[in-house]
Amino acid sequence: MQIAGMICEYNPFHLGHLALVEETRRQGATHIAAVMSGNYVQRGEPALLEKRMRAKQALRCGVDLVVELPLPWAMSTAETFARGGVFLLDCLGADVISFGSECGNAALLIKAAKDLLSPEFPPLLREELQNGCTFARARERALARLSGPETAAVLQTPNNTLGVEYCKALLSQSSPMRVFTMQRVGASHDSFTSDAETASASYIRSLAAGGMDFAPYMPVPAAEILQAELDAGHAPASLERMERAILAKLRTMEPEAFVCLPDISEGLENRLYAAARKAASLEELYALVKTKRYPLARIRRLVLSAFLGVTNALTQSFPPYVRILGMNPRGAEILHVSKMTTKRPIIANSSDILSLDNIAQNVIELESQSTDVYSLFLPNPYPCGLEWTAGICKVWDNM
């Protein structure tokens, strides 16, 4: 048995994801486990469709086991996202981590990660930040001074950058996982255009939201699942449906509540508090807070974290459980092996939460409440309790 692990959002599952699954199999993986964001994603918005439907897409397209990256880690910085995902893959006993990158060069990404973790790096970063650079630009310039321009150049593109964070997490956690990365081809990350065969997840989401044809850019099973959810009014999730509710929540928050948000620093809480009392729309709120130093994705995450009740304290450690979203028979084999060595309890149904410690119960309660809220982003909301009534997605018929 060779277990390959992937950290993903599948928002939604598209042809690029399928290509990585197929190449990972060719590289020798007998089993594939995915750690997937739940109902909210890193860019600070609700996922296009509910997490179990996205897990079902993955299972229909070659993934064997899907576990959830809990909300505090899923809707966070790349570093925290990677830290949580790598930890859960280790809990599952993954032998190799597999991901796409612009460079397709695992050795280069590992070198960049080692240098970013070296004691020589922080003083260089501080110097560059003092020159008024954004954090991303300062980090790249500091790495160029330490390691040379070729290594630093990997930080210029999003999937390379995330790959470096995966490698940093592997090193920091002393993980034995090997690294495999496949070079991405076709449409770039978050591109709103497509080529003849591929499209980014952002472009596919825009097609689905606009009632246009997305099927050419997705595996057939994944497209069928998305279309069925659209027809039922269970997709697409839209931030705008809850805009007034989000603004209302932020307007009632006291200044000290903003201090407790994840990734808050440098007086950003004051800007957010002041903007929340002025803005009449989310776009206006983002515009009032955003600066060169505070990119839009960070602001969006902070706003949604405030609305959902995510605090900085939750993100300081590792996910406290392994939550199963879906599996096939090979996925069940992964679980059978991992139960003997896992560092965290495995949650498959509601009765499993009774044995959790207080921290884990707090996280899973946040997850449950956030799922109830997520439903209100949909055209046709589910009733409360979906977190436990939906059950695990089991796919036994496409092995």
Description:
The protein has 399 residues and is an alpha/beta fold. The chain has helices at residues 15-26, 51-60, 71-74, 78-91, 106-116, 121-130, 135-147, 149-152, 158-172, 201-209, 220-231, 243-251, 255-259, 268-276, 282-289, 296-308, 329-338, 358-374, 386-389; strands at residues 3-8, 31-37, 40-41, 45-46, 65-69, 96-101, 178-183, 322-327, 346-347, 393-394. Helix 2 (51-60) runs antiparallel to helix 11, helix 6 (121-130) crosses helix 7 (135-147) and helix 14 (268-276) runs antiparallel to helix 15. The model has no long low-confidence stretch (mean pLDDT 94). InterPro entries: Rossmann-like_a/b/a_fold, tRNA(Met)_cyd_acetate_ligase. Keywords: ATP-binding, Cytoplasm, Ligase, Nucleotide-binding, RNA-binding, tRNA processing, tRNA-binding. Its EC number is 6.3.4.-. This is tRNA(Met) cytidine acetate ligase.
CATH fold description of the largest domain:
Rossmann fold
Residue-averaged pLDDT = 94
Tally of strands: 10
Which structural class should the secondary elements be placed in? alpha/beta
Kindly estimate the percentage of residues that lie in beta strands according to DSSP. Answer: 5-15%
| Radius of gyration (Å) | 20 Å
Q: Could you estimate the helical fraction of the residues in percent?
A: 40-55%
pLDDT < 50 stretches: none
